[in-house]
Design a protein that fits this description.
alpha+beta; 6 helices
Length: 187
């Protein structure tokens, strides 16, 4: 987060973590002079987005007019996302009001992909069980050829689930290693 802040806003102080406590103590003793540097337009936008965040009718309030419509969808509700630019900062808000920074959107999409992948694996594994159950039932009814077809489909589903699990876990491990390496480089 500190690097992200430095990229997005002008900061008053940059100190090492060990000096944060003493800086905060010093700042609390400093007299505060209130400066209202916010324009009327910015104040209106802040009020507008606060109402959206409070679960008001974002679509009816015109959230899609805050910026340009993107090809991205909200990882929470699958709604259309609008790109909102403020200086160097790019944010996204959906038609129902969910809001994201680019990093948060990417994290949400990644979580959704991971969840969908595990749902697919689970679905394949359930299909294996159902094919097996149906194959045994048909076998007991003397319908050997039909039963073998279900057993074959069970094996195929099992192979697909194993392939997907292996592939996904390998890719996930590589991605986590890359993220850890990047985080170490930033420190």
């Amino acid at each position: 987060m500190p690097n992200n802040v430095l990229e997005q806003v002008e900061v008053d102080h940059i100190v090492a973590m060990k000096d944060v406590g003493s800086l905060l103590i010093w700042l609390t003793k400093e007299e505060v002079v209130y400066k209202n540097n916010i324009t009327q337009q910015e104040a209106k936008r802040v009020r507008f987005e606060t109402e959206i965040a409070l679960q008001k009718n974002a679509s009816g309030m015109g959230v899609l007019g805050l910026g340009k419509l993107t090809p991205f969808t909200c990882p929470e509700c699958n709604g259309a996302l609008t790109e909102i630019r403020e200086g160097n900062l790019i944010r996204y808000r959906c038609h129902t009001g969910h809001g994201f920074t680019a990093d948060a959107l990417l994290a949400g999409l990644t979580d959704k992909i991971e969840g969908n992948t595990w749902q697919t694996i689970k679905g394949l594994e359930e299909a294996v069980l159902l094919y097996e159950q149906m194959g045994h039932q048909l076998n007991n009814q003397g319908k050997k050829l039909k039963a073998e077809d279900f057993f074959r489909k069970s094996r195929q589903s099992h192979q697909r689930a194993e392939w997907l699990r292996t592939f996904f876990l390998q890719k996930l491990e590589k991605a986590e290693t890359a993220v850890e390496k990047k985080q170490e480089e930033e420190i």
